[in-house]
Amino acid sequence: MSIRKAFRSKTEIVSLKTMSETLSFVRVQSDDLILTTKNIYDIFLQSSLKNNKILFREDYGTGQILDTTVDKIAKDAGASYKRVIGIGPGSVMELAKLLSLEKFSPFADIYHQRFALKKIRDLILIPSTPGTGTEVTPYCAVVMSSLGVQTVLNDDCLYADYALLCPELLEDLPFKAMASSSFDSFVHAFESYLSPLATPFSKTMSLKAMEIIIKAWSSIACNGAGALNDNIALLQQAGTMAGIGYANAGCAAIHATAYPLAVRLSLSHGESNYITFFEIVKIYKEKKAIGSLDDIECMACEILDCKKDESFAYLERLCNNILSRKKLSALGMKENQILEFTDMVMTRQHMLIANGYVQLSPGEIADVYKNLF
């Protein structure tokens, strides 16, 4: 199928206030399979769920999803369940997507395209962070541990039937996790807005998401971390809006250059994007200042009360007040990895580079890592 500009949203999105209200909406059945975290279960689910099969994300490791993780969870889940309910952060929801399929193990067979994906179960996703947007995307990222590479599945059968937004789930989110996660959603919105595949409909979602996030960050910077709970529902909504933009128009160079940082340095997805973001923006401004980037600067300067050409400088200072950044050398990167990371981007993330606002050369990508080192 050829790639074309179009707007789609296959998931029904429902905003709720509490987990009690959310569980009433879901009407959990005895033959539902629930994937969640132990903390969420202890706080919100233990008293309500008595006879369900429940899998805990922590029992299968932490961090990125590995192919070995997928195979183990497939074995433990079995096949005797009719719906899948994923309640938790991005990795929980992406694993829940796989659990809704007829067959997803051994994952190596999916990687080598030995069978087609087929969804046979209803899928309900309830995010516990405000950033990934995966509750409304057709994507699932898995690392092939034997190869040291990440593959991203992109198939319509990975869309959830329902995405339920419950801000109560986010109320105890650690501040750093919130900051990192919200920056992840900001980058989804930013890159999808600039994408050559963006439509007026996806751009509306993406621009509104960025506006909400910048206003929330400004509130937190002015009033302290205590202002987080006042903004958490809006940040969650912005993450889903950004996810819709991302699902329709994709991401680009920021995600591509962040990829080696997540895979080789074990940084979170949001933090990896944050580290490379402003370096990529500098290249964009140098090569194509007038265009969709101009729209974002106009929106940001109104919120940040600055001149348009100062928007990203003001935004960078705001972000540094929310989440500090370290040099890559302080995060474990070696100088000889500059070329390795550049090669990883050009050979494994070339489709994201091709989807960029402007095209980046290998030399420009290498310079990103040199400047951040």
Task: Describe the overall structure.
By secondary structure, this protein is of the alpha/beta class. The protein has two domains: 12-169, Rossmann fold (3-Layer(aba) Sandwich); 175-372, Dehydroquinate synthase-like, alpha domain (Up-down Bundle), CATH 1.20.1090. 52% of the residues lie in helices and 11% in strands. It contains 15 helices and eight strands. It has helices at residues 19-26, 38-45, 67-77, 90-99, 107-111, 175-194, 200-223, 228-249, 253-265, 269-287, 292-304, 311-322, 337-348, 350-354, 362-372, and strands at 12-15, 32-36, 53-56, 83-88, 122-127, 139-144, 149-154, 162-165. The chain has a six-stranded parallel sheet, sandwiched between helices. Strand 6 and strand 7 form a beta hairpin. Helix 7 (200-223) runs parallel beside helix 11. The mean pLDDT is 92.
The CATH architecture of the largest domain can be given as Up-down Bundle
- The biggest beta sheet, please? 6 strands, parallel
The first-to-last residue Cα distance is 40 Å
Give the overall average pLDDT. Answer: 92
Beta-strand residue percentage: 5-15%
Class per helix and strand makeup:
alpha/beta
GO molecular function, one term: alcohol dehydrogenase (NAD+) activity
Protein name: Aldehyde-alcohol dehydrogenase
Keywords: Oxidoreductase
Organism: Anaerobiospirillum thomasii
